[in-house]
Amino acid sequence: MKLGLSRACLYSSCCASIASSSMPSLTAIKPKIPIFLRQPSYSVTSSDLQKWHGWAKNIVSSVGSSFVESDNGPDSTLLCRELNWLLEDSLENRSSSSCFSFSACKYDTVDEIENVMLRISLDDLYQLWKQRIEDRRPFQYIVGCEHWRDLVLSVQEGVLIPRPETELIVDLVSDAVSNNEELGQGLWADLGTGSGAVAIGISKILRFYGRVIATDLSPDAVSVAMFNVQRYGLQHVIEVRRGSWFEPLKDVEGQLVGIVSNPPYIPSDNISGLQAEVGRHEPRLALDGGASGMDYLLHLCNGAAAMLKPGGFFAFETNGEKQCKFLVDYMQNQIAGSFCNLNIVSDFAGIQRFVTGFRQ
């Protein structure tokens, strides 16, 4: 989970907008509320909370580097940070966490604190941390949210957890819009939106001059995306539609100025070798890209040729250099004449990750 020193600031800035918003009323599946947004309804003694933390840190100590060695999973240092974040999210007043000292999983309480209010029960805290260690349940699913760019997004089982590298898609769109005013005033599509992260990021760039349609086949993803869109008051800018890729966009064929997507691109045979947090828990629908991992990327290329207006921009995320080069070759030779100014862009780690271009 990518969090910086501004984690608490991100919470305080988003809570004001969230508190004034309501849940979407038309979703078939009701999203789960992230822990930090729940009402503080549970009173516990600091002594009992200390016992929980002592139990939790002992489990972390027993993990050591075993997760790293088995599948490049989290080490005990990261798990310690997650433990502290879980407590921060659970406390009624985040500033009250200053009354507790955390350092390398050391826990000390201030004697004056006798009772504290929590947003989940102590029994739930025990259960959640047990799931984190024994089941390798992703931390984002434990707390119900992920920090992504300047957003705090609701996530839950059945919805892909947005990755730090995917943030670059928003930057690529920003660059394209800054060089072409028309792109900033038109209709965009985020295909396979998941939590709605990219759609929300793009909407902030468009600044109410353009619109975004976000699509996803998963009812869980549609529900969570709608929840996140409404939390940030963007329901008049972003429309969430359920359906497979371009199917929900038949009414806007040839009218899009931009298409972005982070589609499933992991080769099917590689799913079983993924980190347990990913392979066991994140939706296979959002991971499995077919035998070569290219099934949906090729579908996106073919569809974009019909959906984009001349001069329209696209940005697709891939699994790396091999897929990037294959995709560029496909567009240059198999559907020649459809796109121009094709470009491969590396992610934060220097891995060739994105393919961008324009409709001819």
UniProtKB/TrEMBL annotation:
The lineage of its organism: Eukaryota, Viridiplantae, Streptophyta, Embryophyta, Tracheophyta. The keyword Iron does not apply. The keyword Zinc does not apply. Residues 185-265 form the Methyltransferase small domain. Keywords: Methyltransferase, S-adenosyl-L-methionine, Transferase. InterPro entries: DNA_methylase_N6_adenine_CS, HemK-like, RF_glutamine_MTase_cyano, SAM-dependent_MTases_sf, Small_mtfrase_dom. Coiled coil: none annotated. This is Methyltransferase small domain-containing protein.
